[in-house]
Specification:
Helices cover about 25% and strands about 10% of the residues. It is α/β, with parallel strands linked by helices. Strands 8-7-3-2-1-10-9 form a 7-stranded parallel beta sheet. Strands 11-12-13-17-15 form a 5-stranded antiparallel beta sheet. Strands 4-6-5 form a 3-stranded antiparallel beta sheet, with no helix packed on it.
Length: about 550
């Protein structure tokens, strides 16, 4: 059965291509150097021409940008620097007119410290109802001068901050992002209201930030984690599944079952996808169950090296996990939090990416031409897989990581919060180039909030549009073909493939072959539908993907 992406299809998301927009870096309509909603609306025709099915907006809410917009002062409004609710409605309306779905980022683990509730909590007494919406606790030590636990912030340092009356509040991220207490019914009710607020405005779905962290074991006495008190991706090491004090606890699933009743009250039901950093496909599948969010990001795929055996294993495991959950698989190569894959895929296995960024991208040097070749091959491979593909803005242009941003322009709080040890995520957030010239290469009438390198001129939309073989035209061709070819959600691996080659069929003879080896291999028989690079003398060269019929 052909997959229907019409507005009436409740399962439109199962094999959709979803384009992530980081609003401050997409397009700037008013020339102040910061991207905005009107800028996005003016450029939606680019997404329609590209052939994606939906756009996902990273946070556009009121924020002081302590964490790039993920410190939200009001979950039901627009940052005045980015526009108004009327501008959002105009954006959603134009997207729907062009046949594009709209997904918004939901940030339920924490608010900004400027949120009205947190300001009320600071003014209230210890033990008050206002403080009960957040996680306030007395400190340890003779005078409460020590944090309540050894819990660490994901961005470095203690996860507790003391307030003037002596109590401490929990912030798993920056101190400007106090964590909500999801045991509090008022918090739960408020987010039901938020889900309805955006759904009523025509939003088609939600991406749920830090979905694994809402439920916490806050029973007294709070538990220390012991040394080292990890809070990043390794935090779950040594804990039985579902038992860590604040990550991936079993109780979190009650929250999402409750949300599903809200999302299913709309026609069509609103979709959701979890950002859940969890240790296994089995744990990830819990968030993706139909009675919960329905889909979860597959970061294992993003983190897999450019190796045929490793990729085949993660693809097989991911499809099995999605099937077990009743969900479709998700695939992503880049996003607003990671080094762009055009650069990342060229780093030798085991490279310390932070050290590479601190070296301004020189240790080791990256072959940008080969990086782009590999990124194009990775894209065609991803787009051939069953499930949803999430594409980060600028991927369609082949943008590399801007690794040489000078430290004086860095905006990511990671830089300061780690004592200037971790460079942070600014290099993948540099505003997009639309034209070959201009103060910000067409991003806006003025400059850009992060400086763009001169090399961006060659990657601009204007420089690639209509140019045969350009990365932009490769994406357009592949997405047009994908829409016609999609049937079912299964693949069949070829019985025999040369070492270093991935070879699978989807259906009706549609076949994807990727050569990840260092040598050319014989091109299988069939009509070439699209290739990520030149095919010469009947051979599929290294770092090249082809679709065959």
């Amino acid at each position: 059965m052909t997959h229907d992406l019409s507005s009436k299809d409740p399962n439109w998301w199962r094999q959709a291509v979803i384009y992530q927009i980081y609003p401050r870096s997409f397009a700037d309509a008013d020339g102040d150097g910061l991207g905005d909603l009107k800028g996005i609306t003016a450029r939606l025709t680019h997404l329609a021409a590209l052939g994606v099915d939906a756009l996902w907006l990273s946070p556009f809410y009121p924020s002081e940008l302590a964490d790039g917009g993920y410190d939200v002062a009001d979950h039901r409004d627009v940052d005045p620097r980015l526009g108004t609710l009327d501008d959002f409605d105009a954006l959603a309306g134009e997207a729907h007119r062009l046949g594009l779905k709209v997904i918004v980022d939901l940030v339920p683990n924490h608010s900004s410290h400027r949120h009205a509730w947190f300001q009320e909590a600071l003014a209230a007494e210890p033990g008050s109802a206002a403080r009960a919406r957040y996680v306030f606790r007395d400190g340890r030590g003779a005078h409460g001068e020590l944090p309540p636990t050894d819990w660490q912030s994901v961005f470095g340092g203690s996860a507790w901050k003391r307030v003037p009356d002596g109590q401490w509040y929990l912030h798993l991220f920056t101190p400007e992002q106090p964590d909500f207490d999801w045991d509090n019914e008022e918090v739960r009710a408020d987010f039901r209201t938020t889900l309805r607020f955006w759904s009523d405005r025509g939003v088609d779905g939600f991406r749920v930030d830090v979905a694994h962290a809402l439920a916490k074991d806050l029973t007294a006495p709070l538990r220390d984690l012991g040394a080292p008190a990890l809070s990043g991706e390794d935090a779950l090491d040594g804990f039985a599944p579902g038992t860590h004090p604040f990550f991936d606890r079993d109780e979190v699933h009650e929250i999402y079952r409750d949300w599903r009743t809200v999302l299913d009250s709309y026609r069509p039901p609103r979709m959701a996808v979890a950002e859940a950093w969890v240790p296994s496909a089995e744990r990830r599948a819990l968030y993706a169950r139909p009675e919960e969010l329905g889909q979860a990001f597959n970061f294992a795929y993003l983190q897999t090296p450019w190796d045929a055996d490793a990729l085949r294993q993660v693809i097989t495991d991911s499809l099995a996990g999605a099937r077990a959950a009743g969900a479709s698989a998700t695939w992503v190569l880049s996003n607003h939090d990671v080094v762009r894959h055009t650069s990342r895929l060229m780093l030798p296995p085991g490279t310390d990416e932070n050290a590479w960024l601190l070296s301004a991208g020189h240790a080791p040097e990256v072959d940008t031409a080969q990086g782009l070749r590999r990124a194009r091959a990775a894209t065609l491979l991803m787009l051939a897989l069953p499930g949803s593909s999430y594409v980060y803005q600028g991927e369609e242009l082949g943008l590399p990581e801007v690794a040489d941003l000078p430290v004086e322009v860095l905006q990511d709080p990671v830089w300061e919060q780690t004592g200037r040890v971790r460079k942070g995520r600014d290099g993948c957030r540099v505003p997009l180039p639309w034209t070959r010239t201009g103060p910000s290469y067409g991003f806006g009438a003025g400059g850009a909030w992060l400086p763009q390198p001169e090399s961006f001129a060659a990657y601009a939309v204007e420089a690639q549009e209509g140019v045969e073989g350009s990365t932009l035209e490769l994406y357009r061709t592949a997405l047009r073909l994908r829409r016609k070819l999609l049937q079912g959600e299964a693949l069949t691996w070829a019985a025999a493939a040369p070492p270093g080659v991935l070879d699978f069929a989807r259906h009706d003879g549609w076949r994807c072959v990727t050569n990840l080896s260092d040598t050319a291999v014989t091109l299988p028989a069939g009509e070439v539908l699209v290739a990520s690079g030149p095919l010469e003398d009947g051979l599929l060269g290294p770092d090249t993907t082809v679709w065959l019929a």
